[in-house]
Amino acid sequence: MGSSSHGRISSNMASTVSCACFILAVFLFISSMPCEAQLSSTFYDNKCPKALGTIRTATRSAVSRERRMAASLIRLHFHDCFVQGCDASILLDDTPSILGEKTALNNAGSVRGYEVIDDIKSKVENVCPGVVSCADILAVVARDASVAVGGPSWTVKLGRRDSTTASLSLTDANLPKFTDGLGRLTSLFREKGLSERDMVALSGSHTIGQARCVTFRGRIHNNASDIDAGFASTRKRKCSLAIGSDDEKIAPLDLVTPNSFDNNYFKNLIQKKGLLQSDQILFSGGSTDSIVTEYSKSPSTFKNDFAAAMVRMGDIEPITGSQGQIRKLCSVVN
Fold this sequence. Notes:
- This protein is mostly helical.
- The chain is about 50% helix and about 0% strand.
- The chain contains 14 helices and 2 strands, in the order H-H-H-H-H-H-H-H-E-H-H-E-H-H-H-H.
- The protein has helices spanning about 5-30, 50-65, 70-80, 115-125, 135-150, 170-175, 180-190, 195-205, 215-220, 230-235, 265-270, 275-280, 290-295, 300-315, and strands at about 210, 250.
- It has a two-stranded antiparallel ribbon.
- Helix 2 runs antiparallel to helix 4, helix 8 (about 195-205) crosses helix 14 and helix 11 (about 265-270) crosses helix 13 (about 290-295).
- The longest helix has 30 residues, at about 5-30.
- The model is unreliable at about 10-15 and about 25-35 (pLDDT under 50).
- One of its GO terms (molecular function) is lactoperoxidase activity.
- Its cofactor is heme b; Ca(2+).
- Belongs to the peroxidase family. Ascorbate peroxidase subfamily.
- This is peroxidase.
């Protein structure tokens, strides 16, 4: 064999080895990168096959005792996911080392259903101890609560783990406020990877549930042009202008069918009968007017979009793999 041939073979071998080394280096680099969380709807099929049935039965029971609880349980999942991701951080009680989320401005006195989640967690622990996270329970309960009041169902992706921390400051910074304008609301949702359409669909959960006088007093008493006068007058009967007197009195977010998951919320907005300022702003001459109109005409479109948005919301920064923990009690770190 000629020397030129031998040189080509050596060169080719060197090239092959160099290429293999490069591929190995790339592989090692990629494997050292943090894994993108992979949630799966079948996560508990083998680990705890009775988990979903146990959660569904307990959720139905809680909602049958109090219809309003459906809205509260959906809201719990939402308020959890928007702070640190869907990690059950909202359920942690304050400790000397944790200043938690329960006492945040947007949660204190208004977020409820903690005892329902604790009860469901206890039932799931009896079936399979230390397997099902509080974060996953929140996600499944939100779906089951929707179904219990005539709302849509969706396939819940599972495999989240529970955080060992919570944050009061992040709660105030990340959760929408009832006084927020459209730009602020859109920005908050966009930061979580949710579109304007997702935001309007998720706001439609206000077709059920109640709000406290302290959150809508300003709107019903300011005689603005964006509120129906008759609607404002009706609401004033239980919510006087005097601060402190009727603060904790409640009114349905949807006056028409407050306990049924339907599209009346959007019809109300078109009639200037949104109870909260952050509701009515969705139909106030801005970019979301057309979505509100669409949902007001098509309940099926709203329900489909709501289900899809809930799945996307459940994907916000979950803890998976060996991160976090599976809390034995949802209110405290193990």
